[in-house]
Amino acid sequence: MTYWLAAVGRAIVSLFFIMNVGLLTFGVVGRIVARVHGRIGPPVWQPYVNIVKTISMRTAVSHGVMFYLGPVFRITGGVGLYLLIPAVHGSTWLGNFHFTGDLILVVYFIFFGMLGMALGAAESGHPYSAMGVMRGLTQVTASEVPFAFAIIALAARHHSLSITEIVAAQQGGLLHWNLFVAPVATAAGLFSLLGMMMQSPFDIHLAPQEIPIGPPTEFHSSYLALLQTNRSIFATAKLVLFVNLFFGGATSIVALVVKVFVLFLFPVAVGVVFPRYRVEQSVRWFLGVPTAIGIAAVLIETF
Amino acid sequence: MEDTLRTLVERFDATGVDRRRDRLAFAIVPPDRLVDAVTWLRDLAGYRHLVLLTAVDRIEEGIFRLLYLLRAPEERADIGLHVDVPREGASMESIHHLWAAARVYQRELREMFGIDFPGSPEVDVSMILEGWDGPPPMRRDFDTRKYSEETFYPREGRETRDPAAHAAVTRYPADEQVKDEIRRVARENRTRGE
Amino acid sequence: MAELFCDARPQAVDPAANRVVRAFYNWAQANSLFILAFGTGCGAIELRPLFTARYDISRYGIMPRPTPRQSGLFIIGGYASIKTMKRIIRSYEQMQNPKFVMGLGSCTVNGGMYWDSYNTINRLDYYLPVDVYVAGCMPRPESLIAGFGRLKTLIREGRAEGANRYAENFDWYKANQKRIIKDWNMPEYNW
């Protein structure tokens, strides 16, 4: 009993921590993007205000059961993904619920939220929602291909499917990071990170000028608050995963925050420079050079 | 241009040829010859582009004067064909088979002036005025101001001023004083001269 | 149609009862305004410079949102013809309480230069509950920013209750709307 209470308590603390990291990161990144545009940009705490505002909406409309469950599935995807990844190496509080084969399950969980969202968006009945979800699923599928190759390469190198063991193998200095030990796999992983983070060249599921904001078109009030919260958790969880896999993990909270933020700057920097791809361009891009690099990584690590 | 106009007069009973410029001319064509004339202009004389199709409400003469403006891209010349149709039960032959775009003009004319184009696709579907039940609003006997005051809710306190006179008083009073002074001096000089 | 729309009348919803919570919510509403990005008239052209480098409205927590479900502020950009009015009403009713309306340009105040037109409305506040008018033809982006400031003050003071006003005077607003929209081929209230 006490074990379960402690586990739930740890999970809540851990989620609260990662939510704030995510929201603040998004706030700072909003400022940075604005500076690139030559603007001043919204305040750093704007994501918090947005969430409070959406919660404070007084009415909400439902289109059915799946409409309720869509955002719930989405946040389940984000929370589930995060809780399976050890955030801080060796920490009891932020170690989360890692186990031996978590790397495989994590790859599934990246997909889970999007699939749940597909059900909810379909129930909302808005054509743009269905269109956006379809495009999002297409792109995530494409971007998972190089990611899968990168993971296979890492697993082959470290003879393990446990994120904790992969992190443990990278301890002991900068040069032990997979970034330097397995640079080809890292390259494939970083390319697929671009697609997973859904920043500008690959924001085809939102497509601001085409199918305005895509999947969440009909979601409002508290549904939207859930989605906004999930956005911060999910994105940060993916970044934490990449920090663990390629950048030596993190042994302290400060190291984690710094690494997550610096890694987030990569998709953001690409995003502010490049305009949006069309669907087929994006898919073609992922199945081209990044996949080739991924295959090369697998070959290098295996033989 | 000369040949085209001569042919219009000889073969299509065009009257009142009005040469505005070297490459711009207008002519009046009887309603029953219009489609023939336009077809000939399009297919044989090079006037392939329908620039616009519009109407003028000549309420004093009891007619609508339609204007078919055509352009020949190679010659860079324009010819406008006027057609007079009576205001009562106004109706005209459709030219949507020549230019697909004409159906939009004809829909608009049907909606705004009440000129019917039998056979034109969707000519009775309203384009801008959804659910309009009054007379066609672009006819000159339709009083838009009265309609507006009856239908919408005019906000009281609206004043109308001449912009120049109003700006002179409110924005540039010093200028106005100087001008008054000049006028006064000029008047005095004139009276002294007499 | 029937399963996608609901004909139920709008209900007035009271703001949060607790004074501190209400103040906090009002503050959040004022500092996170989502504009419904629906250019309803020529004034919509004045909104574009607001989002770019020169005026940058995002520093006040204001951003465009292309769906009525998520937006809280509807800007009527100038003249509203009857045909647009129909879409405006549908969009407005799909927004969630609390929602605010800003009339932009003289056309929304008294018809502006289209005051005697057969096709444009004269007073917007007979059809929608307007919170703030920004006069001018067209108003500069600076006046718009001043209008946003005024609207924020109203929201913070809890005086921008347009959605509740609309629900309470629903019959009057509907009668006015139906007087100009002759072919009412949509639900009575689309939420």
Topology:
The complex is a heterotrimer of chains A (303), B (194) and C (191).
Chain A: H1 2-37, H2 46-55, H3 65-84, H4 102-124, H5 127-158, H6 163-170, H7 178-181, H8 183-197, H9 221-246, H10 253-273, H11 279-287, H12 289-302
Helix pairs in contact in A: 1-9, 1-10, 2-9, 3-4, 3-9, 4-5, 5-8, 5-11, 5-12, 8-9, 8-12, 9-10
Chain B: H1 2-12, E1 15-21, E2 24-28, H2 34-43, E3 49-58, E4 63-72, E5 77-86, H3 102-112, H4 144-151, H5 163-170, H6 173-193
Parallel strand pairs in B: 2-5
Antiparallel strand pairs in B: 1-2, 3-4, 4-5
Chain C: H1 19-31, E1 33-36, H2 48-51, E2 62-65, E3 73-77, H3 82-94, E4 100-104, H4 106-110, E5 132-134, H5 141-156, H6 162-168, H7 170-180
Parallel strand pairs in C: 1-2, 1-3, 3-4, 4-5
Helix pairs in contact in C: 1-5
Q: Could you characterize what this model shows?
A:
The complex is a heterotrimer of chains A (303), B (194) and C (191). Chain A is mostly helical. Chain A has helices at residues 2-37, 46-55, 65-84, 102-124, 127-158, 163-170, 178-181, 183-197, 221-246, 253-273, 279-287, 289-302. Chain A has twelve helices and no strands. In chain A, helix 5 runs parallel beside helix 12 (289-302). Chain A starts with a helix and ends with a helix. By secondary structure, chain B is α+β, with helices and mostly antiparallel strands. In chain B, helix 1 (2-12) packs antiparallel against helix 2 (34-43). The longest helix of chain B has 21 residues, at 173-193. Chain C is 36% helix and 11% strand. Chain C has a five-stranded parallel sheet with strand order 2-1-3-4-5. In chain C, helix 1 packs antiparallel against helix 5. The chains are: A mainly alpha (303), B alpha+beta (194), C alpha/beta (191). Chains in contact: A-C, B-C. Chain A binds chain C through residues 34, 37-43, 46, 49-50, 52-54, 56-61, 125, 208, 212-213, 216-221, 224, and chain C through 4, 11, 13, 15-16, 24-25, 28-29, 31-32, 37, 52-53, 56, 58-59, 61, 63, 65-67, 69-70, 72, 96-98, 163, 191.
Q: What is the percent of helical residues of chain A?
A: over 70%
Question: Helix and strand string of chain B, N-terminal first?
Answer: HEEHEEEHHHH
- Terminal CA distance of chain A: 48 Å
Q: Strand order, biggest sheet of chain B? A: 1-2-5-4-3
Helix content of chain B: 25-40%
General form of chain A? globular
Low-confidence stretches of chain A: none
How far is the N terminus from the C terminus of chain B? 60 Å
Main sheet overview of chain B: 5 strands, mixed
User: Please, what is the average pLDDT of chain B?
Assistant: 90
Largest interface: A-C, 31 and 30 residues
Question: What shape does the CA trace of chain B take?
Answer: extended
Give me the count of strands of chain A: 0
* Class inferred from helices and paired strands of chain A: mainly alpha
Structural class call of chain B reads alpha+beta
Radius of gyration of chain A using CA atoms only: 19 Å
**Mean pLDDT value of chain A:** 86
Per DSSP, what share of the residues of chain A sits in E-state strands of 2 or more residues? under 5%
CA radius of gyration of chain B is 25 Å
Largest sheet of chain A: none
